[in-house]
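Researcher: We're teaching a course module on how sequence relates to structure. For the next exercise, students receive a sequence and then see the predicted structure as C-alpha cells, so they can try to spot secondary structure elements on their own. Here is the exercise chain.
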Amino acid sequence: MFHKFLKLPIELQLVIWHFHWPPTRHYFTLYDARIREYGAISMEDERYVNRLVPKRKKATLDFIPFLTKIPFTGQIRVRLRRVVSVDPPEPEFSMIGSKAEVYVYFAQDVFYFDDFPYYYPLTDTWAKEEWFRFLRKPITQLQPPKLHKSHWIFKVRNLALRLEWIGESRGTEWDHTILRKMKSLKEVWLVHPRTPNIAIETPFLMINRTFNELPYSVDGGVKDAYLYLQGKMKEYGIDAPVVMTTIDT
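Model: And here is the predicted structure for the students to work with:
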C-alpha cells in the first residue's frame, strides 16, 4: 500500500484514482418475482467487485468526483464474488433489505439489463420480456412508472441489452419510453446468447466478442431485432451505434 498517498496534492490523487479505477460492467435482473438482482464485474480481470456504498455516513470513495452513487429500492440480491471451493464455482451474494446504493462511473461503465418476462399470479398472465423491469417500483407494478428526468438511468452512456435466445426481444412500450430519453448514450450492445437458459453473467463476461457488422450466422429474428433497435435509435435522435455480440456457449 502507498501509505503517503493521502499526503499527495488532491489533484494528483484524483489523477491516480482515475487511471486505477477499473471499468465495470453492472448487470440488472430479477432473482424472483419480488427480489431484484445486481452484480458488478471488473472488465480488467472478469471478477466480481463490490461496488456497494457502505452504510456509514462517509467513505473514501465519496470524495472521488467522477463516481456517482445510484440508489436501488426494495429487496435486492447483490453478487459479490465467486466461491472457488465448489465445482462449478458459484457466486456468493448479499441480500440487502432496502435502500442500497452502488458506486458507478458513467463515463466508462457498461450497464447491462436482462430481458426478463414477468408472471402476474392474480391474473395468471405473463408479461412480455422487458429490459427495464428492474426499475419498476415495486417490481409487481402493473402500470409502469414515470421516471423523473433526473433518474440515473438517463445518465447511462454505455448500455447493453440482452436478447432473448430465440431473438424475438424488441423491448416493451415502456422500454422505449425510457430509451427515447437516454440522450447521454454513446454506445448500445445487443447481447445474444445462442443457448437457452444461459446465466445472465456468462454472456455479460463475454461481451468483448462484438461485430461491427452482423455475422452470417445470426438468424433472421436476431437480425430483425438488431435492425429494429438501430432504426429506433435514429428515430429518437440518439447518435449511438448499436453493436451486436453473439454467444455460442
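Model: If you want an answer key for the exercise: The chain has a mean pLDDT of 79. The first helix runs from residue 10 to 20.
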